[in-house]
Prior knowledge:
Layout: E1 2-7, H1 24-44, E2 51-54, H2 58-70, E3 75-78, H3 88-99, E4 107-112, H4 116-125, E5 139-144, E6 152-158
Parallel strand pairs: 1-4, 2-3, 2-4
Antiparallel strand pairs: 1-5, 5-6
Amino acid sequence: xxxxxxxxxxxxxxxxxxxxxxxxxxxxxxxxxxxxxxxxxxxxxxxxxxxxxxxxxxxxxxxxxxxxxxxxxxxxxxxxxxxxxxxxxxxxxxxxxxxxxxxxxxxxxxxxxxxxxxxxxxxxxxxxxxxxxxxxxxxxxxxxxxxxxxxxxxxxxxxxxxxxxxx
Length: 167
């Protein structure tokens, strides 16, 4: 399964951290990131995203909505493990459940917050710093057969504003 770990787009200020909405730049970055993801999937013969899991906070929900709307037949699900304070172990349990299904998505996107997104990348790759820390809107694509530490293959990563793919 392809798992793309995506940090929400740039967010503005709000009364509470949970209510922060994407800025105009954040919306544009995530939208452009979707275009680049589509191109990279096509160029590399990878499946397009089919499912997006995201935290329930406003900025991740907005980012996930942009991502899901960019890909035909892509569904959205809120996931408690992706909230701030989530851990790789919590995400493992969610991914294990998905990997056990007969209707396994070929490409899953996880939309969350720092520091969890960068911790997940390091955890699944089994090495810190193989991909850069994710700035707002940044993403990393991994190939994952099992949800466990040091069990992923780095496919590529991309950061705004250019979203050029790097390995």
